[in-house]
Amino acid sequence: MKILNITLVLALALSANAGEQRVYQRDNMGNIQYHKPSYTVQDNGRIIETSKYGDKLYHKQQYLMKDGKVYQSDSMGQIQYNKPHYAIQQNGRIIEVGPTGDKHYHKQQYQVKDGKVYQVDSIGNIQYHKPGFVVKP
Questions:
Q1: 84 near 104, Cβ under 8 Å?
Q2: Taking Cα atoms as reference points, which of 110, 116, 107 lies closest to residue 134?
Q3: Residue among 69, 75, 12, 67 at smallest CA distance from 41
Q4: Exposure pattern of 53-77 as b/e (b: 16+ CB <10 Å)?
């Protein structure tokens, strides 16, 4: 699964405010990458990839936030329980969880901090030199 998808999902799940929100990629310097695809988070928790022109890409992998977790879903919004999902912990850390419930600590982890999503190492240190995401209304 792409890091982009994971990060977007995480950012979206932790910033569940009223109205649609967009999650943009940012480079390692913190600049928003408007020329790259972003994600739209809908009020119902559905996360849809969006083109650089603002068109929702319904044919791409979608996600659904439910009970503090971010699940992969199909184009109809049905959760795909046979695929890994992401658990969002109370401290803002995001960890991949397999279909059987086992946490994948060896996979890339993320941290949500101040409306931004950062990549972190296995012990929780933020990797500022790596690209991340930012949430905007």
A1: yes
A2: 116
A3: 12
A4: eeeeeeeebbbbbeeebbbbbeeee
Q: Indicate the number of domains in the chain.
A: 1
Q: What is the pLDDT of residues 69-128, one digit of tens each?
A: 889 999 888 999 999 999 988 888 889 999 999 999 888 888 888 878 888 988 889 888
12: helix, coil or strand? Answer: helix
Tokens of 42: 């809908």
Torsional class of 114: left (φ above 0), alpha (ψ -120 to 50), beta (otherwise): left
Is the distance from CB of 133 to CB of 7 less than 8 angstroms?
A: yes
CA distance 23 to 10: 10
Q: Provide the domain limits for residue 116.
A: 3-136
Going by the DSSP 8-state scheme, the letter that residue 9 receives in this structure is: H
Count CB atoms within 10 A of the CB of residue 39. Answer: 27
